[in-house]
Amino acid sequence: MDHYQSAIAENIKLVRGRIAEAAITSGRAPGGITLLAAAKTRPAESVRQAIEAGVDAVGENRVQELLAKAEQNAYAGAPLHFTGHLQSNKVKSVVGLCDLIESACSPALMLAIGKRAVSLGIVQNVLIEVNVGREPQKSGILPEQLWDVLEFASRIQGISVLGLMAIPPIKEQNDKKCNYFDIMYKLFVDMREKKYDNIFVRFLSMGMSDSYADAIRAGSNMVRIGSAIFGNR
Protein backbone atom coordinates (compact mmCIF):
# COMPACT_ATOMS: atom_id res chain seq x y z
CA MET A 1 0.00 0.00 0.00
CA ASP A 2 1.58 3.30 -1.06
CA HIS A 3 1.46 6.45 1.05
CA TYR A 4 -1.42 8.07 -0.87
CA GLN A 5 -3.50 4.90 -0.79
CA SER A 6 -2.81 4.62 2.94
CA ALA A 7 -3.90 8.25 3.41
CA ILE A 8 -7.21 7.64 1.61
CA ALA A 9 -7.91 4.57 3.73
CA GLU A 10 -7.05 6.46 6.92
CA ASN A 11 -9.22 9.41 5.90
CA ILE A 12 -12.17 7.10 5.26
CA LYS A 13 -11.67 5.55 8.68
CA LEU A 14 -11.76 9.01 10.27
CA VAL A 15 -14.87 10.00 8.30
CA ARG A 16 -16.59 6.77 9.30
CA GLY A 17 -15.85 7.60 12.93
CA ARG A 18 -17.41 11.05 12.63
CA ILE A 19 -20.40 9.57 10.80
CA ALA A 20 -20.89 7.04 13.59
CA GLU A 21 -20.70 9.72 16.26
CA ALA A 22 -23.21 11.97 14.48
CA ALA A 23 -25.56 9.07 13.77
CA ILE A 24 -25.56 7.88 17.36
CA THR A 25 -26.12 11.44 18.59
CA SER A 26 -29.25 11.59 16.41
CA GLY A 27 -30.49 8.20 17.62
CA ARG A 28 -29.67 6.23 14.49
CA ALA A 29 -27.39 3.34 13.56
CA PRO A 30 -24.14 4.34 11.79
CA GLY A 31 -24.78 1.59 9.24
CA GLY A 32 -27.82 3.48 8.01
CA ILE A 33 -25.67 6.31 6.59
CA THR A 34 -24.42 5.94 3.02
CA LEU A 35 -20.89 7.28 2.51
CA LEU A 36 -20.43 8.50 -1.05
CA ALA A 37 -16.96 9.45 -2.28
CA ALA A 38 -17.27 12.64 -4.33
CA ALA A 39 -14.71 11.93 -7.02
CA LYS A 40 -14.74 15.15 -9.06
CA THR A 41 -11.26 15.74 -10.58
CA ARG A 42 -9.85 12.68 -8.79
CA PRO A 43 -7.96 10.14 -10.91
CA ALA A 44 -9.32 6.66 -11.51
CA GLU A 45 -6.68 5.08 -9.28
CA SER A 46 -7.77 7.22 -6.33
CA VAL A 47 -11.37 6.19 -6.90
CA ARG A 48 -10.36 2.53 -6.94
CA GLN A 49 -8.47 3.04 -3.67
CA ALA A 50 -11.51 4.64 -2.04
CA ILE A 51 -13.68 1.71 -3.10
CA GLU A 52 -11.11 -0.76 -1.79
CA ALA A 53 -11.11 1.15 1.51
CA GLY A 54 -14.86 0.68 1.85
CA VAL A 55 -16.90 3.65 0.64
CA ASP A 56 -20.52 2.76 -0.08
CA ALA A 57 -20.78 4.55 -3.44
CA VAL A 58 -18.94 6.93 -5.76
CA GLY A 59 -20.35 10.18 -7.12
CA GLU A 60 -19.37 12.14 -10.21
CA ASN A 61 -20.75 15.49 -11.35
CA ARG A 62 -19.32 15.81 -14.85
CA VAL A 63 -20.47 13.47 -17.59
CA GLN A 64 -17.27 13.57 -19.60
CA GLU A 65 -15.16 12.78 -16.55
CA LEU A 66 -17.49 9.99 -15.53
CA LEU A 67 -17.30 8.35 -18.96
CA ALA A 68 -13.52 8.62 -19.05
CA LYS A 69 -13.14 6.95 -15.65
CA ALA A 70 -15.73 4.31 -16.50
CA GLU A 71 -13.53 3.31 -19.45
CA GLN A 72 -10.71 2.86 -16.94
CA ASN A 73 -12.90 0.58 -14.80
CA ALA A 74 -12.69 3.05 -11.92
CA TYR A 75 -16.06 2.22 -10.37
CA ALA A 76 -15.93 -1.57 -10.13
CA GLY A 77 -17.22 -2.76 -6.78
CA ALA A 78 -19.34 0.25 -5.81
CA PRO A 79 -22.59 1.86 -6.99
CA LEU A 80 -22.10 4.90 -9.20
CA HIS A 81 -24.10 8.10 -8.66
CA PHE A 82 -24.35 11.18 -10.83
CA THR A 83 -24.50 14.27 -8.63
CA GLY A 84 -23.96 17.23 -10.97
CA HIS A 85 -26.16 19.30 -13.22
CA LEU A 86 -27.37 17.01 -15.99
CA GLN A 87 -28.13 18.56 -19.35
CA SER A 88 -30.84 16.91 -21.43
CA ASN A 89 -28.42 16.15 -24.26
CA LYS A 90 -26.24 14.15 -21.84
CA VAL A 91 -29.06 12.02 -20.44
CA LYS A 92 -28.38 9.17 -22.86
CA SER A 93 -24.81 8.88 -21.52
CA VAL A 94 -25.82 8.61 -17.88
CA VAL A 95 -29.09 6.65 -17.76
CA GLY A 96 -28.36 2.98 -17.26
CA LEU A 97 -24.72 3.61 -16.42
CA CYS A 98 -25.41 5.21 -13.04
CA ASP A 99 -27.20 3.40 -10.24
CA LEU A 100 -28.65 6.70 -9.01
CA ILE A 101 -29.01 10.14 -10.58
CA GLU A 102 -29.12 12.50 -7.60
CA SER A 103 -29.76 15.67 -9.58
CA ALA A 104 -33.18 15.30 -11.18
CA CYS A 105 -33.84 19.02 -11.03
CA SER A 106 -36.92 19.60 -13.20
CA PRO A 107 -39.97 17.83 -14.63
CA ALA A 108 -38.50 18.16 -18.14
CA LEU A 109 -35.30 16.41 -17.11
CA MET A 110 -37.25 13.64 -15.38
CA LEU A 111 -39.25 13.12 -18.57
CA ALA A 112 -36.04 12.84 -20.58
CA ILE A 113 -34.55 10.38 -18.10
CA GLY A 114 -37.72 8.29 -18.13
CA LYS A 115 -37.89 8.23 -21.92
CA ARG A 116 -34.28 7.06 -22.18
CA ALA A 117 -34.80 4.43 -19.48
CA VAL A 118 -37.88 3.04 -21.22
CA SER A 119 -35.93 2.79 -24.47
CA LEU A 120 -33.33 0.70 -22.62
CA GLY A 121 -35.93 -1.45 -20.89
CA ILE A 122 -34.89 -0.32 -17.40
CA VAL A 123 -36.10 1.83 -14.53
CA GLN A 124 -33.67 4.61 -13.56
CA ASN A 125 -33.47 5.54 -9.88
CA VAL A 126 -33.32 9.29 -9.20
CA LEU A 127 -33.36 11.81 -6.38
CA ILE A 128 -35.14 15.13 -6.78
CA GLU A 129 -32.76 18.04 -6.32
CA VAL A 130 -34.17 20.85 -4.19
CA ASN A 131 -32.74 24.38 -4.41
CA VAL A 132 -33.21 24.86 -0.69
CA GLY A 133 -31.22 28.10 -0.62
CA ARG A 134 -33.26 29.60 -3.48
CA GLU A 135 -30.09 30.53 -5.34
CA PRO A 136 -30.89 31.85 -8.83
CA GLN A 137 -27.70 30.45 -10.33
CA LYS A 138 -28.33 26.94 -9.00
CA SER A 139 -30.51 24.18 -10.43
CA GLY A 140 -33.22 22.37 -8.50
CA ILE A 141 -36.87 22.85 -7.69
CA LEU A 142 -38.00 25.23 -4.95
CA PRO A 143 -39.22 23.60 -1.73
CA GLU A 144 -42.85 24.61 -2.29
CA GLN A 145 -42.81 23.02 -5.76
CA LEU A 146 -42.03 19.57 -4.42
CA TRP A 147 -45.58 18.27 -4.16
CA ASP A 148 -46.57 19.21 -7.69
CA VAL A 149 -43.30 17.74 -8.98
CA LEU A 150 -43.87 14.50 -7.08
CA GLU A 151 -47.37 14.22 -8.52
CA PHE A 152 -45.90 14.72 -11.98
CA ALA A 153 -43.02 12.28 -11.39
CA SER A 154 -45.38 9.57 -10.20
CA ARG A 155 -46.83 9.41 -13.72
CA ILE A 156 -43.50 9.13 -15.57
CA GLN A 157 -42.60 5.69 -16.84
CA GLY A 158 -38.99 4.62 -16.52
CA ILE A 159 -38.04 6.43 -13.32
CA SER A 160 -38.24 5.65 -9.63
CA VAL A 161 -37.84 8.54 -7.19
CA LEU A 162 -35.92 7.42 -4.11
CA GLY A 163 -35.73 10.69 -2.19
CA LEU A 164 -34.22 14.15 -2.14
CA MET A 165 -30.85 15.85 -2.62
CA ALA A 166 -29.76 19.36 -1.70
CA ILE A 167 -26.66 21.55 -1.62
CA PRO A 168 -27.14 24.49 0.76
CA PRO A 169 -25.38 27.76 -0.14
CA ILE A 170 -21.65 27.07 0.08
CA LYS A 171 -20.68 30.33 1.80
CA GLU A 172 -23.25 30.14 4.58
CA GLN A 173 -22.10 29.67 8.18
CA ASN A 174 -22.80 26.30 9.77
CA ASP A 175 -25.78 27.48 11.82
CA LYS A 176 -27.47 28.75 8.65
CA LYS A 177 -26.66 25.51 6.85
CA CYS A 178 -28.31 23.62 9.70
CA ASN A 179 -31.49 25.61 9.08
CA TYR A 180 -31.43 24.45 5.45
CA PHE A 181 -30.81 20.89 6.57
CA ASP A 182 -33.82 21.12 8.88
CA ILE A 183 -36.00 22.37 6.01
CA MET A 184 -34.89 19.43 3.87
CA TYR A 185 -35.54 16.90 6.60
CA LYS A 186 -39.07 18.18 7.09
CA LEU A 187 -39.69 17.83 3.34
CA PHE A 188 -38.25 14.32 3.45
CA VAL A 189 -40.49 13.27 6.35
CA ASP A 190 -43.59 14.78 4.74
CA MET A 191 -42.71 13.13 1.43
CA ARG A 192 -42.32 9.75 3.14
CA GLU A 193 -45.82 10.01 4.58
CA LYS A 194 -47.45 10.49 1.17
CA LYS A 195 -48.22 7.66 -1.24
CA TYR A 196 -47.36 7.99 -4.91
CA ASP A 197 -46.64 5.55 -7.70
CA ASN A 198 -42.93 5.38 -8.59
CA ILE A 199 -41.98 7.13 -5.31
CA PHE A 200 -40.05 5.05 -2.77
CA VAL A 201 -38.59 7.43 -0.22
CA ARG A 202 -35.25 6.10 1.03
CA PHE A 203 -32.52 8.73 0.75
CA LEU A 204 -31.95 12.25 1.95
CA SER A 205 -28.63 13.20 0.36
CA MET A 206 -27.07 16.26 1.95
CA GLY A 207 -23.84 17.15 3.70
CA MET A 208 -20.32 17.45 2.30
CA SER A 209 -16.81 17.51 3.78
CA ASP A 210 -17.39 20.70 5.76
CA SER A 211 -20.89 19.90 6.97
CA TYR A 212 -21.65 16.17 6.91
CA ALA A 213 -21.80 15.69 10.69
CA ASP A 214 -24.34 18.51 11.03
CA ALA A 215 -26.29 17.12 8.09
CA ILE A 216 -26.47 13.67 9.67
CA ARG A 217 -27.61 15.11 12.98
CA ALA A 218 -30.35 16.92 11.04
CA GLY A 219 -31.53 13.70 9.37
CA SER A 220 -29.36 13.07 6.30
CA ASN A 221 -28.69 9.42 5.50
CA MET A 222 -26.37 9.97 2.54
CA VAL A 223 -23.31 12.23 2.61
CA ARG A 224 -21.09 13.24 -0.31
CA ILE A 225 -17.47 13.51 0.83
CA GLY A 226 -14.62 14.70 -1.39
CA SER A 227 -11.70 16.52 0.24
CA ALA A 228 -12.09 14.78 3.60
CA ILE A 229 -11.39 11.51 1.75
CA PHE A 230 -9.04 12.48 -1.07
CA GLY A 231 -7.39 15.60 0.36
CA ASN A 232 -7.54 19.09 -1.06
CA ARG A 233 -7.49 19.45 -4.82
Explained architecture:
It is a single chain. By secondary structure, this protein is an alpha/beta fold. It has one domain (3-230): Alanine racemase (TIM Barrel, Alpha-Beta Barrel). 42% of the residues lie in helices and 18% in strands. It has an eight-stranded parallel beta sheet. Helix 1 runs parallel beside helix 8. It is globular and about 45 Å long. 43% of the residues are buried. The model has no long low-confidence stretch (mean pLDDT 94).
**What is the CATH-assigned architecture?**
Alpha-Beta Barrel
Number of spatially distinct domains? 1
Main β-sheet, in a few words?
Answer: 8 strands, parallel
State the distance separating the first and last CA atoms: 21 Å
Side-by-side strand order of the widest sheet: 7-6-5-4-3-2-1-8
In CATH terms, what is the fold-level topology? Answer: TIM Barrel
CATH superfamily: Alanine racemase
Extract low-pLDDT stretches: none
Instruction: Specify the CATH class.
Output: Alpha Beta
Strand composition percent = 15-25%
The H/E string reads HEHEHEHEHEHEHEHEH
Structural class, from secondary structure content? alpha/beta
Number of helices: 9
